[in-house]
Amino acid sequence: MPGRYRLHLSPSCPHCLKIAVAHSLLGLEDACPVTLLPAVPDGPGGEHSALRPLYEASAHRYAGAAVAPVLSDDWSGRIVSTHAPDIMRDLARRFGGERPPLYPKGMEAEIEAVGHLCEQGINATAQRAGRADADDAERDSALGSLLRTLRSLEGRLARQDYLLGDRLTAADIELWVSLVQLDTVHRWHLDASAVHRVADHPALWAYARRLAGDPAFGAHLDLDGIARRHHAHCRGLEAAGAAVQIVEWAAHAPDRTASRQG
């Protein structure tokens, strides 16, 4: 039912950014409107106070943080889901209509595997490689794991346009958001030589730039919001890699204000 369901997103959050991209690719602006939340949560535990009524209406005496993303039912005033992968699949399968499928039949397991690879092989290893409280051996081991993952992805993207072949799928959303996080967040805690080694994957970063130029991707890049969210919550030390930006995201992303007005 058009207009019944609503997304509550803060695109500075990587989980919300994935959903925002999927929402645009599926053309769901009218079918499932979006309420944008501040880049930096205004409560403890990543809470957005604007979401507190929805959480309390959905769970009696809810005591946890009211976090984004949220898919809600405007008719009941309750939450449908807060799990980003489930929300993305629901948008694609229940609202996708005539748009190219983000989860093509028979590719679900591959897409899930890519999500795991991005979470463990990129996000988690990049965090460990930049931990100030880890010793050199731990950081070197994590960096080695990160570079092996990037090298495997580089091999795929050197011979095909998209991660799983000749068409864009949800796997590309997963990878693109991880690359955005790697360059706009994790890079701040790596040394300069590590960032140069991360950058030395030309097909991978050309792919990231190309997708950033697609309004369905780049129009949701809130670079200032990502930076403010990161600095508001991060307690790690800034390293020399902070000065070595891999992608000029602002140069490849469409103007966000113009995109919204258009």
In the CATH scheme, the class of the largest domain would be Mainly Alpha
Q: Structural class from helices and strands?
A: alpha+beta
Helix content: 40-55%
Total of DSSP H or I helical runs spanning 4+ residues? 12
Shape: globular
Strand content: 5-15%
Strand order of the largest sheet: 2-1-3-4
Oligomer, anyone?
Answer: single chain
Task: Give the integer mean of the pLDDT values.
Answer: 91
Indicate the CATH architecture of the largest domain: Up-down Bundle
Largest sheet: 4 strands, mixed
GO molecular function, one term: glutathione transferase activity
Protein name: Glutathione S-transferase
Pfam families: GST_C_2
Task: Give structural notes.
It holds the Pfam family GST_C_2. One of its GO terms (molecular function) is glutathione transferase activity. This is Glutathione S-transferase. InterPro entries: Glutathione-S-Trfase_C_sf, GST_Omega-like_C, GST_Omega/GSH. This protein is an alpha+beta fold and about 260 residues long. It has 2 domains: about 5-95, Glutaredoxin; about 110-260, Up-down Bundle (Glutathione S-transferase Yfyf (Class Pi), Chain A, domain 2). It contains 12 helices and 4 strands; from the N terminus they run βαβαββαααααααααα. It has helices at about 15-25, 50-60, 85-95, 110-130, 135-155, 170-185, 190-200, 200-210, 215-220, 225-235, 250, 255-260; strands at about 5-10, 35, 70-75, 80. The chain has a 4-stranded mixed beta sheet. Helix 5 (about 135-155) packs across helix 8 (about 200-210).
